[in-house]
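Notebook entry, structure prediction.
Reason for the run: the old model in the group folder had no record of what sequence produced it. Starting over properly, with the input documented here first.
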Amino acid sequence: MSTAIGLVLGFAADRLFADPRRGHPVAGFGQAAASLEKRIWRDDRPTGVVYVVALVGSTAAAGIAAERATRRSLPHTLLTAAATWAVLGGTSLDREAAAVSGLLTDQRLVDARVQLTHLVGRDTSQLEEPEIVRATLESLAENTSDAVVAPLVWGALAGVPGLIGYRAANTLDAMVGHRSPRYERFGWAAARFDDLLNLPGSRLTALLAVALGDDRGGAWRTWHRDAAGHPSPNAGPVEAAFAGALGVRLGGTNDYAGRIEHRAVMGDGPPPTRADLDQARVLARRIGWAAVAIAAIVAARGGVTARR
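New structure, fully documented this time:
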């Protein structure tokens, strides 16, 4: 039960306090990863595999050691709560999306473009309001899976090592897993491993979007019809389910610093508006609460089974 209670407490802490502005452990991990990259980088896949194994493996090992040092219920609960709070990003994600929406409401288009860079890697400098809304909604959908549901899934299945090991892998994907001349080969392992770890979380997120959205039939239909057109095996189901649940159309052309991607259109509705973005924030929060409830139940049942 200590894992289940710790997941709930950590989720509540994220809702109350969001991410710390300074001294965030994920930022510290990112600095260490960047330092190691400078030392060992080579333009090949084997070096990238070593990079991922070293960083994710050492992080998960630290989680195992921490759990072994906190065998009693209360210390283990507090450890799990702290780790959960450290790896979740749902409240910060919601605040970033709300900030973009607020700037658009105030007709501060230039500021909204700058704010959007906190959420997406695409070039935002020329985007008009419809494209800003679309980019924000797509990021909100994808990161509800990456920053909320997936870590809770791994916390329920593998405790503290699962929580921090998942976040390490996801951070490496964000740092080196994208397509560029420098990372096309070196970042291959980070991208593929992150895809693998996010498979259960993304499917659960899509299922919850279907169950908790306003248009269940539309969410289910859009997911199974349109998700495969997305280049990401995990972002596709989530974004498609959100599009169907909200009755909007996502996808289209994105500019990544001169690299143009023409992504498949998902959904049958009109392009999303600010009102749709606000509804997407509500849906994302519902999914977060449902995910932590499911994670707690899975963790509690796993503990009972282990004791038996």
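Summary: The first helix runs from residue 2 to 17.
The old model has been moved to the deprecated folder.
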